[in-house]
Structures are given as structure tokens and as C-alpha cells.
Amino acid sequence: MQVPSPSVREAASMYGTAVAVFLVILVAALQGSAPPESPFPYHIPLDPEGTLELSWNVSYVQETVHFQLLVRELKAGVLFGMSDRGELENADLVVLWTDGDGAHFGDAWSDQKGQIHLDAQQDYQLLRAQRTREGLSLLFKRPFGTCDPKDYLIEDGTVHLVYGILEEPFQSLEAINVSSLQTGLQRVQLLKPNISIPALPSDMRTMEIRAPDVLVPGQETTYWCYITELPDGFPRHHIVMYEPIVTEGNEALVHHMEVFQCAAEFESFPHFSGPCDSKMKPERLNYCRHVLAAWALGAKAFYYPEEAGLAFGGPGSSRFLRLEVHYHNPLMIKGRRDSSGIRLYYTATLRRFDAGIMELGLVYTPVMAIPPQETGFVLTGYCTDKCTQLALPPSGIHIFASQLHTHLTGRKVVTVLARDGREKEIVNRDNHYSPHFQEIRMLKKVVSVHPGDVLITSCTYNTGDRKLATVGGFGILEEMCVNYVHYYPLTQLELCKSAVDPGFLQKYFHLVNRFNSEEVCTCPQTSVPEQFASVPWNSFNRQVLKALYSFAPISMHCNKSSAVRFQGEWNLQPLPEIISKLEEPTRHCPASRGQSPAGPTMVSIGGGKG
User: Fold this and answer.
1) What stretch or stretches form a coiled coil here (predicted)?
2) Would you tell me how many other CB atoms lie within 10 Å of the CB of residue 316?
């Protein structure tokens, strides 16, 4: 990095600072129980061609992310940043650009028209620019939060990263408009939990679940399904960890992967390898839905707690597994072969506890609906105190991981734990949730749930592009609101979800008829989706539906794994009473900006080290 005409003292100070920060990164990265392969443990390709590669490290002590951006074929510059949903407008950016005479690095932002402006507060700090054999390497850092209204707040959930490639010099930053650039987005969880790797058993074995030699279709999105089976007589084991296997060269194509176990009630499943939406796919494959493993771009290996493992194999467990691979191929590349999958690590020495997966949120039913043209409509599902009191062991359960799930209109998801009417802690939250990026995430802190606790799962939806109500259901154009929580010890409780009482919803339709000239048919033979489709969506009908969902009694599904409810009365249940809500955490602004530059930094991007 070169600043115009620095004094020897300034240059020495800057070099010393860069070296010191880099050592901090190294120390932070090496604090785990096993040394990572580099001081930047997380990597993703940003663009489909693989010319931009991002590596990063997280310091929770400093509340800072250190980024290393490798630009393999530098033209006239590059921009990188974050935005709410991956748009290039209203984005928080850092830009490396050339003006013909020199190169500059600066913190910037884009307005709603895509015009780029220099940020008055320079929060991205360049630590090093260096030419390597692979290309130009930029090392820079940014705090999680900056208290700058133009900056993005880096939070625990999904982050939509954006990038752009500058193909020609610009005389100034303000001369750049993102609409003229080659741009794209990549979704990732930046703030990975800082969890120590648990001790692994000495008798651990591995099994690779991968679809052999798939010819990746030359289309943007493909879900590939592959059926495989465990060996005959495979006894009960515990899965203790798993990790991705991505075919070399396909890192930008393989978006996410899941392994599902098939239903035990079927003796056999037909073998299949093909697109999941193919007409040739056997119908029975729809019964392979019990998640064993899930990975998404940017994620590392997943570890179970030392005292628990996920059981598979043995009596009462299907030998058949389904691998699902999501290929993201925006360049429509043809002829690419892939054998990616997931490597399971398992042990015959069973751990103290079986891990389990429990569904929280809303029942898949059309009685829960989102009106059209809504930008932030919230639906909430409950796991009530009555259900946890009946179904959980006296010592409770411990949630260590979570996978959030909605369909296409989901924008935010959160699950909160409440005890004695007071919200106590957040189980998992994603304020920038995307249905196109779903992974099982290890929690930073294990959440203990006791009998009598309440788990409240809320989803926020955007139906701005829809003309009819979006009802709950299994279809991709219908909606869901689910949190699959991974916990131990295993209980009989597999599903703890709710929906508004159907009788109260019919009262809503009767009320709509009293106040509107357009009639909603309330005759018994009319389905709920048909009723919602005929509601005239004026402000009154929208507000009354929202109010109905916030006070009407619910139907609870407190279900065992056999899909049978626990004994008790579960219809017309009152909503849990919450007398105290969690407060939003106070944002701490970085204490000192002494080292932040007042404006763009001049950068040497010629040969050798900068």
C-alpha cells in the first residue's frame, strides 16, 4: 500500500499497524482446538467464473470482520459490499478503482438510482494490497456496526454480498453507476459461531453420499436427486460430524446440498439419479424427508456436541437415503460433470444422548394466509407451555443448531424462548433471510428449554408482486414458517406448531361479507384458498385479518413422531400471554476512528508487493 510522499515515520507506523493487525488475525484464528488451514478459515467464490474469491475471519472480541479479496483477473477495478436483499442500489460498498493515473481504495455507498458516492465516514480500512501469483490480494477490515446511516449492520444471519467488476478507468468514484457494470450477488453467513471443535471418537468411520458423475444441466437452477442405500444389516450408529465434498472446479456451481433419510414404513425405494422435478422421478421419493445433513455455500464442517449424536441405521430406520444438490448455473455452462456430496462421520460407540430434530412454527394449512401487496406481513406459530410441560423431560432439552425455512415470500424468521410470560432469549434469528439460502446453523450458545416454556416462531413475508392471497401449504407458491431445531436428548415430541382456529377464520369471512359488497362464499363446500381468493383486499380486510391472527384461539399440533398428538385438548387454545418482550440490543459505535483514513487511499497495484 502506498500513500503519496509519506514520511519515513508515517510509513513505518502504517507498516507496523498492518503487521500487528495481521498477527491479531492469526492469533484469533488459531484459538480453536485445531489449527485451521489458513488465518482465513472461510472461503467462497463470489462470481460464477471464479475470478473473485472472498476469504474472511471474524473477531468477536474486536467486533470486526477481516476480509481477503482475491481478484484473479484485474481489469480497471472492483467493488464489493453488502445490501439488504442483494440489490446494487442502496448498497454499502468498498471500491477499488483506477482513474488512469493511479488506483484508489475507498468506502462508498450507492443511492436508489445506483449512483456511487464516497462515504464521509471511511469504515472499510485497507491493510494490505499485494500482487500474488494468483492475482491481486486485498486485505481489509470493517466493524460489525459503524453507526453510519449509509453502512450495513453485519448481523448473525444471512448476508447478501454484492460485487461488480470495473472494466475501464473512471475519473472519479461519482462517475460510476452500478447499472453499467458486470455485477452479481452471493449469500453467506459471515458471522460464524466461534465454537471449539469437540473431541472425536477413535473408532470414527466415514461414508460419502455423492451422486456419481452428474452431467450438470445447462440451466440456471437445478435440484438434483440421487437415491443410495446403507449396507444390508447396517447397525445403529451415531453421526458425529459431516462436511461437504465439492468437485474441484465446481465451487461456484454447487450452491447447497442436503441428505435425507427415507421413511421406515417402506421396505424399499427405487434407485434414481436425475432432476428432482423430473416426470421420471418416482413418487415414493417424496417420502424421503427426514434431514440427516445440510450444507450451504460458505459453511464448514458441522459438529454434534460431544455428548450427542444423530442416530441412523439399525431396526426401525430406513436404509435408503436421498441426496439433493442445488446447482446454481447462471452462465448456463454445458458439459460440466459433478460428483459433489456430503461426507458423514459416524461411530458405533453410541454417545450418551440421541440428538433429535423438532419442527417449530406454523402448521402447513391454508388458514394462515398473507394478503397480496404486503411488504412486511408477520405470521406467528407457537409451541405452547401446555405442550412442553407434557412432552419434555423434567431436565428439559438443549437446542444446539437450527434450520429456518419458508418458501418464496419469506424475508425474516425468528424464534424466541419465553418463560413465565417473559421473553428470555432468541433461539435463532435471520433479519435478511433468503429462501434461496437455507442451512443448518450451529448456535453460538446452546439454548435450554424447560417444561412449561413457550417457543414463538415469527416469519415476515413480502407479497408485493402477488395479486392473490398466499396461503399456507406444501406448494412452492404457498407458504411455510418453520424452524427445524436440532437438540438433545431425543424426546417423542417431533412437531410443536400451531394455526389459527378454523372456526374463528370463518367468522372473519362472515365479517368481510357484512362490510363489503363483494361476497366471500362461506358455504361448507368452498375451500379456504377459494375463500381467500375472493376477499377484496382493502385496508379494513387486511387489518382485521392481522388482528384475528393476533388474538384468536389456536389449534395446537403437539405431535409425536408417529404424527399422533399427545393426549389432551388441543383445539381452541388461548394464545400464550407474553407480558414482557426482549429489548433490542444497544448498538455500540466503534470508540476510536483515529486509524481510519479521511478519504480514499492511494494503492499500488503494479507488480510485486504493494
Assistant:
1) none
2) 7
Are 604 and 6 contacting, i.e. CB atoms less than 8 angstroms apart? Answer: no
180-205: string of b/e by CB count within 10 Å (b at 16+)? ebebbbbbbbbbbeebeeeeebeeee
Measure Cα distances from 197 to 233, 310, 346 in Å: 31, 17, 16
* DSSP symbol at 307: T
Contact criterion met (CB below 8 Å) for 155 and 129: no
In three-state secondary structure terms, 191 is coil
Residues 6+ apart with CB under 8 A from 64: 58, 141, 142, 143, 144
Where do the DSSP E strands lie in 144-289?
158-166, 182-189, 205-210, 214-215, 221-229, 237-245, 254-261, 273-275
Question: Do residues 95 and 177 make contact, with C-beta atoms less than 8 angstroms apart?
Answer: no
Torsion of CA 254, 328, 188, 250, to 10 degrees: 30
Report the alpha-carbon distance of residue 484 to residue 595 in Å, rounded: 44
Q: What is the DSSP string of 471-508?
A: EBSSSTTSB--EEEEEEES--SEEEEEEEE-HHHHHHH
Q: How confident is the model at residue 359 (pLDDT cuts 50, 70, 90)?
A: very high
Rounded-to-integer distance, Cα 565 and Cα 529, Å: 26
Identify whether 223 is a catalytic site residue.
yes
Provide the pLDDT for residue 591: 60
Return the H-helix or E-strand segment holding 326: strand 320-328
Between 220-224, 247-251, 401-405, 597-601, the lowest mean confidence (pLDDT) is in 597-601
Q: Report the distance separating Cα 604 and Cα 610, nearest Å.
A: 5
Other CB atoms within 10 A of residue 449 CB? 21
Per the residue annotation, which of 43, 117, 328, 405 is the catalytic one?
405
Q: How far is CA 126 from the centre of its chain?
A: 28
Q: Which residues of 488-522 are buried (b: 16+ CB within 10 A; e: fewer)?
A: bbbbebbbbbbbbbeebbbebbebbeeeeeeebee
Q: Examine the residue annotation and report whether 407 is marked as an active-site residue of this protein.
A: no
Q: Tens digit of pLDDT for each residue in 216-268?
A: 999 988 999 999 999 999 999 999 999 999 999 898 899 889 999 998 888 89
What amino acid is encoded at 99 in this protein? Answer: D
**pLDDT of the residue at 23:** 33
Length of the chain as a residue count: 610
pLDDT at 523: 80
pTM: 0.85
